[in-house]
């Protein structure tokens, strides 16, 4: 509803701000009254003058501006890349590594990590447009968890439950002794 009101106000402002836009022959101007005549004579008053407004279109200078020429970069028909990373943090026990390469439209890669129980999980994968994504998962290693440094607790705080006081009821509401109709 507010949008309709806003649109109506904008239309009204546009019409009232542009004189002559919707003129139908009447204007806001009026003719000045006739000069005072001598006593005991009749007075004549001129009718409102009808004016029209002529609005000239603004002159628009046109300049030819040459658009910048955009040249497409050459597309490599056989893109290739290779990346790898590794993490070995003795403080947290986090150990992982990964590498991946793209050559001739085929992606080859692998990643490995140490699981919380000490096993090493290694995933080797390939991906291409014909065969899709294929992965081989290997799990090797020990049966004990990798040592992880754990910080000792700062302080132990024992909390005892606070006693709760319950107030006795103020009034007792009872129903009359006769039965209900429902």
TrEMBL record:
Signal peptide: 1-17
Entries under PROSITE patterns matching the protein: CHIT_BIND_RR_1, CHIT_BIND_RR_2
Spans through the membrane: none
Entry GO CC: extracellular matrix; extracellular space
Single GO MF annotation: structural constituent of cuticle
One Pfam match: Chitin_bind_4
This protein's UniProt keywords: Cuticle, Signal
Entry protein name: Cuticle protein 7-like
Protein species of origin: Papilio xuthus (Asian swallowtail butterfly)
Gene name tied to this protein: LOC106118934
């Amino acid at each position: 509803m507010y949008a309709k009101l806003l649109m109506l106000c904008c239309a009204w402002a546009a019409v009232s701000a542009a004189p002559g836009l919707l003129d139908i022959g009447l204007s806001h101007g009026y003719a000045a009254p006739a000069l005072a005549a001598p006593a005991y004579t009749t007075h004549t008053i001129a009718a409102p003058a009808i004016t029209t407004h002529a609005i000239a279109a603004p002159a628009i200078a046109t300049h030819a501006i040459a658009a910048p020429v955009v040249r497409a970069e050459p597309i490599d028909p056989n893109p290739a890349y290779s990346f790898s990373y590794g993490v070995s943090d003795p403080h947290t026990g986090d150990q992982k590594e990964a590498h991946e390469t793209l050559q001739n439209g085929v992606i080859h890669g692998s990643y490995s990590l140490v699981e919380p129980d000490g096993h090493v999980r290694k995933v080797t994968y390939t991906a291409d447009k014909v065969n899709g994504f294929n992965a081989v998962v290997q799990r090797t290693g020990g049966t004990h968890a990798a040592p992880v440094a754990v910080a000792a607790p700062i302080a132990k705080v024992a909390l005892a439950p606070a006693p709760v006081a319950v107030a006795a009821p103020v009034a007792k509401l009872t129903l009359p002794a006769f039965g209900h109709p429902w």
